[in-house]
Amino acid sequence: MAARSDLAPARWRQPFLKWFDGIERGWAIPLLLVGFVALWWAFLSIAYLGADLHPDVLETWTLGRTFEWGNPKHPPLMGWVARAWTSIFPLTDWSLQLMSMVNAAVALWCVDLISRRFVTGDKRIIVLLLLMLLPTYQFHAQRFNANSVLLAIWPLATYCFLRSFESRHLVWAAAAGATAAIAMLGKYYSIFLVGSFVFAAICHPQRRAYFGSGAPLVSVVAGLVVLGPHLHWLATTGAAPFDYALAHAGFGFGQALDEALFFVLGLAATLAIPAATWVMIAGYRLERFPQDYRTINDGLRLLFLVAVGTLVFPIVTAVALGTDMPSLWAHQGLFLLAVLIVCGTSYRIERFYTVNLAVMMTGIALIAVIVAAPIHAIYRNIHGYEEGRSFYRLAAEELTREWHEQTNMPLAAVSGDDALAFATAFYSPDHPVYARPFAYQYTWGLPRQTTLKRGWAALCFEGDAPCIEWMQKTSARATEFLNAQFVVQSRLLGTPGTSRRVIALIVPPARTDPITPPIGPSNEDLSARKRIQSSPEN
């Protein structure tokens, strides 16, 4: 059937064939990536029409508000990217959703840089289409955080390392070291990529030529130059990110084995759909895999060794250190498997299969946009999200309104529930700073008196006992404060949805005149909606 279709293709296949003819002319892959961004950006815009940004994205933006060489939770790359993006694009949901999809498209483009080293034509686009069948580049990418920022930098660093190993040219060596260091600035999990580069170089048959050149030294120097300021920051601030990383450790041997098993099973489940698709494409030719593997060229052999390292090293680490190891953390390295499988084949892939794969991927994207996204938006408007992202903007706007009823000063600082605080920083017209130091993000330390005197507010969801108890303790430290409660309700194109009560604590900037209740509402209204108090002087 495949051979017959290639000889006499149906009319509906003609546009796809012309598209594939443009792969080596330079326009087909960019067109694919633009279409990918457009369709999945549309999906995000529709699916989350009645909701706000994910807390991870809001946290990322918060981290990027100031340029720092590090923070107590994660390395700084994700914040830098968000800051650079929002210095050009507006501070809106659609803007950061677009940033997430552009990041995924850049990642796929970097993968194509590697593929074109080994294959031409249809196989290049097959690699990308198979990767688009993963949830990685759409659903996980939309949560722009320390994991998704690695989607682009891992394949770029791998490409530079490949060029450096093959050519031993000093420019490529410097690029390999610099991009590997940038990957480390994204997340320390990238140590597995760096370790895999070393492992691959040592195990490769051409190791003598590589280590006999100046390339390894240049890579190390370039990497240290790029990473140097962050290392200095770690040395002078107590290396707080390592405390956050070590919080994932401490498991017993049996539990660590379970984590390693779940890591493998999670990756297997993630790869199931593209793997099944490839089996249908390759068919009986899968039996040629052992022979193809034995005859792969040196570049693919290097990538194979890198892939082995990125999969094995996390498993060994999980067992040896007793740490959790979610399979999600390894998604940015799955491109290596697609490149190896497709580029390692010695046989031609009929265009019949390439067209079918493109139609399949396009159909999935269109169904997601036209059918799944509206259903998701309607369902979430009724049932909401566990993290409460249907209410972020509404709560931020209401808190800001309550604040300006008490003072004409802009809201300067916000704390409380992390997601609500991040959201208020983003959605409030005043864009207050997130007031809790990231070093104490997961503790309920009380704000300093100087912080309260400058003006401060906090939000908690009703039912969040630790947050509300902390809020009560904080109010005891304030000279003047306002307690408020309000109900926020999501809406989808005017249709009311789920609702939730939010508790607010407002400490206006220090002043001499006491806060008095606004004239108008009855005592019953005031007690139900908000309570104005003045604490005794300390």
In short:
This protein has 24 helices and 6 strands.
3D structure, described in words:
The chain has 538 residues and is an alpha/beta fold. Helix content is 60%, strand content 8%. The chain contains 24 helices and six strands. It has a six-stranded mixed sheet. Helix 11 packs across helix 17, helix 17 (298-321) runs antiparallel to helix 18 and helix 20 crosses helix 21. The longest helix is centred in the last third of the chain and has 33 residues, at 351-383. Residues 515-538 have low confidence and may be disordered.
Overall mean pLDDT: 90
Low-pLDDT runs of 5+ residues are 515-538
What structural class do helix, strand and pairing data support? alpha/beta
Order of strands, main sheet, comes to 2-1-3-5-4-6
Major β-sheet profile = 6 strands, mixed
**Bulk shape:** globular
Roughly what percent helix? 55-70%
Number of strands: 6
Order of helices and strands: HHHHHHHHHHHHHHHHHHHHEHEHEHEEHE
Instruction: Give the terminus-to-terminus CA distance.
Output: 86 Å
Radius of gyration: 27 Å
Tally of individual helices: 24
Strand content: 5-15%
By oligomeric state, this entry counts as: single chain
SSE layout:
Blueprint: H1 2-7, H2 14-21, H3 28-47, H4 55-63, H5 77-86, H6 93-115, H7 122-132, H8 136-140, H9 150-167, H10 170-186, H11 191-203, H12 207-211, H13 215-237, H14 240-246, H15 253-282, H16 289-294, H17 298-321, H18 335-343, H19 351-383, H20 392-406, E1 413-416, H21 418-427, E2 433-434, H22 449-453, E3 456-461, H23 465-475, E4 480-492, E5 495-507, H24 523-529, E6 530-534
Parallel strand pairs: 1-2, 1-3
Antiparallel strand pairs: 3-5, 4-5, 4-6
Helix pairs in contact: 3-6, 3-19, 4-5, 4-21, 6-7, 6-9, 7-18, 7-19, 9-10, 10-13, 11-17, 15-17, 17-18, 20-21
